């Protein structure tokens, strides 16, 4: 079969831009994905559709769907077409949601084997992945926050150690060099290292630890930014560095440690051996992966004891380590609680937009608009200037930008207007990561140690999805964890199409205001000062039940 890429240009294959936009977003996640043949987008098993029959059925349905119809998708499989109305979503989907006690990784693998579900990751099955760029600003903002908290505001002359150069982890080297640091990324697959070099996210590669260290030391001493991909296993390299007394300034890991069967490759295994043992003796593979993670996390704890800033980058590595004999793994902080919570409390999070025509100039024009109209927004201006210079185009031209309540709406409405006036060469799709203020419950990542203890309450993402449907979004998705994330998270995603129409303006305004509005309220409800301040400043209509105390 021919390799799938997203359609470009302005010729419609569907009955309207809303359907066409979602079709291009689906094609785009596959174009940017890690293993198209398997429909795998990233994170080892996060898929764009249940299987190829489902993919083709989705494509066919979107091409024939009327504007007053809604396509219903269950874990990547299209189930039916419902007559709704033109203000209803074009697509609603629920991916990988299992009932409480049954939401285990064993059940996930069994259901997956039976072809009954797939895991959608956060943005894979919801067709919102935009390549490694989707997490790059998040990773960059983490590094910036660490710089402010620990290194007098800058990372020049600092050494970051990490692992994993996959679909998401591949953003780390570029985020590291954009922040000015020397970053060493350990990766077990040479193909992944080559891919990051090819797309311009990584600078150098070697399979020799001494050579890698020499490059890093030189860059650190000259205070130059540098990224190095080291072919090796993190379970070997991290402990070896600790043994040698090499001391990084910042340490993390973004391998697919959440999944012991399909994600993390144990020490001593090649990718091929892992695939073969997965078939012949899955319990052994799991045990070996768990033991390797334990070794790696012990080294991370050692770096922390010696003074490094160490953090969990959202891959459940600490949870696995505890399971496999490292009781103090949670001495390592998770990135959200450690560095990003004050932003999320104001619903400032990973908003993104995609130029559906494929014209990179559309993204540049939106960049220019932001630089002109958001002059006082330091985060946005700093990021857009950097991204414009450093972030390469992957798939349909896209941009991530951390914006909050009101600003997302302002930007989207302006873009819709630019589409209407023909300033942009085609419509633009807006979405965001599911890992956003009001749309994710994950007690070991997003909502760890919430002020009011509400870490595991999944009402918020469910409310978010219902609210976004009521607000006329174009696509709304509810996801839960798969693999090692089973039982660990629930999230919701949303996509909107700015096609230049008045209806689009109405959808954009209503949905974006309500999406971030709920995000602010979620954190206000948990007692965060920043959120209460935002409620006041932005006029969000919060109901304070304390005022009704009898
Ligand atoms: P991926 O499966 O595409 O890539 C993982 C990479 O790790 C692969 O290239 C693999 O070869 C490599 N790897 C596996 N075991 C290794 C080992 N022992 N040593 C060195 N390299 C090894 O996954 P991804 O999409 O990059 O995501 C990575 C993890 O980050 C996942 O757990 C994912 O859920 C999580 N994640 C976090 C965030 C966040 O917001 N922080 C966002 C997205 C994903």
What layout of secondary structure does this protein have?
Elements: H1 17-32, E1 40-42, E2 46-47, H2 52-64, E3 69-74, E4 77-83, E5 91-95, H3 105-113, H4 133-150, E6 159-163, H5 172-178, E7 182-187, H6 190-198, E8 204-206, H7 209-222, E9 226-231, H8 234-244, E10 250-251, H9 271-280, H10 282-305, E11 309-312, H11 317-323, E12 333-334, H12 335-344, E13 349-355, H13 360-373, H14 378-390, E14 398-403, H15 407-420, E15 428-432, E16 440-441, H16 459-470, E17 475-480, E18 490-498, H17 502-525, H18 529-538
Parallel strand pairs: 3-5, 5-17, 6-7, 6-10, 7-9, 8-9, 10-11, 11-12
Antiparallel strand pairs: 1-2, 3-4, 13-14, 13-15, 15-18, 16-18, 17-18
Residues 34, 42-44, 135, 138, 163-169, 186-189, 192, 233-235, 254-258, 263-265, 313-315, 435 line the site of nicotinamide-adenine-dinucleotide.
Short recap of the structure:
It holds the Pfam family Urocanase_N. Pathway: Amino-acid degradation; L-histidine degradation into L-glutamate; N-formimidoyl-L-glutamate from L-histidine: step 2/3. α9 crosses α10, α13 packs antiparallel against α14 and α15 packs antiparallel against α17.
